[in-house]
């Protein structure tokens, strides 16, 4: 049976109303039908915290040992933009912007001595209110003469040529740091180290390398960091 649904009919009517001479194809018919359909009201945008993006929320945060705030920030402001634009800390990288690549992670230090990585591209600045954060800028030290000393994991990534473009490196530095600190608190057997590194770096995406040199660098640092390994086998 021939389809007598309303789209072709609407298209025919629209065609006639417009005085067009050429026959309308299916795409045009669908377009005309869509144009004739009532338009649903567009919902007001709201961020995950239920606030409209332009409403403000308070932030007081300690980053790399320095306190910032209290200040009000837009509810829709992601932490990576807060770091880049408000604090001038541009080392954290915006990769996918969708919570997948983990290039943008920072470290959140908890009062119980544990730490974790948090993705700043999908986490609002207000989430970090009252928290203590480390970014990639917080790892190296600079003495009074201005001489910079990299953290062991940063130096190891350089020594192992772990990265090419380096876009993913800040995320790897932070993820590896969290892993090494966890192993210091909870040492593991040598036989379990490869699995621990895989788990600790598993979320980090690198588009340039095969990950092997990142993993080798982390293994080196773990093996020469006292207290990470329970046995020497
Ligand atoms: S940029 Fe944040 S997860 Fe990719
Ligand atoms: S070194 Fe280029 S994305 Fe990892």
Automatic annotation (TrEMBL):
Where's the 2Fe-2S ferredoxin-type domain?
57-139
Query: What Gene Ontology molecular-function terms does this entry list?
Result: 2 iron, 2 sulfur cluster binding; metal ion binding; oxidoreductase activity, acting on the aldehyde or oxo group of donors
| Region of interest: Disordered | 1-22
From the Swiss-Prot or TrEMBL record, give the protein name: (2Fe-2S)-binding protein
Record the organism.
Pandoraea commovens
The positions making up the signal sequence are none
